[in-house]
């Protein structure tokens, strides 16, 4: 019983973690790609 509850909580925690980190990853990719592309174009 407790094992099942712990599994559900773990899955929910993982889902929340991915949802929270996704926008930050997208922003980092956007800014990282834009800055590197900008440097490449200027050079």
Report a brief summary of the structure.
By secondary structure, the chain is mainly alpha-helical. It is built from 1 helix and no strands.
Overall mean pLDDT: 85
Extended strand count: 0
Q: Percent helix among the residues?
A: over 70%
Strand content: under 5%
Give the termini distance in whole angstroms. Answer: 62 Å
Please compute the radius of gyration using only Cα atoms: 18 Å
How would you sum up the global shape? rod-shaped
Which terms would index this structure?
43 residues, mainly alpha, 1 helix
Describe the structure.
With 43 residues, this protein is mainly α. The N and C termini lie far apart (62 Å). The protein is built from one helix and no strands. The mean pLDDT is 85.
Question: What's the SSE blueprint?
Answer:
Elements: H1 2-42
